[in-house]
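Re-run with default settings, no changes from the original entry. Doing this only to confirm the output is reproducible before filing.
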Amino acid sequence: MKYKSLRFFIAINSLIGWAVIVIGCLFSLLGAIVALAERSSVFGFLGFLIIGGSLSAIAGMFIFALGDLFQCFIDIEENTRPTANVSKEAVSNKASINVQTNLSRKERSPGTVTYMCPNCNRFQNSDVIKCENCGAANPHYPSNKSKPETSEAWASNDTRPEATQCRRCGAGVNQLDKFCSSCGYANG
């Protein structure tokens, strides 16, 4: 276990926090009793009791918060260490970090582009027509694309730009468009 001394400090800090709250409340109660015994006003009694108890509770909570802050720093360091080690290893090996999908090894080839089925959220190869799991149509497959609708303004206009096909998905794209409206590929 790392940071033994820091963890010991956090435990001691917790004990000190409880001690401040308990002792502060006892002293405020004792002060209130003394104020009442000397026949001071009721405000002296309530002042000692409420203000003393509140201040000791606030001071104890600050001490607790300091311990929790250190525990938070330890947790952050322990949770980010594995990610940092993987990143360092990838940089030192000059290797890319592979994204894990639920495709089997034979389905995953280096040049295969995948998409996530919008129906069952399973990763598929982009060249399949239907999802192998649920049978939903692949929206990225060229024959499953809906034809782009032309408005009447474009249909009546003689200066309409020529439509071309997207180089990635095969959807119709106007020459003036920089990006494919179906897959977002830069066609310009």
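The two ends are 56 Å apart (CA to CA). The mean pLDDT is 75.
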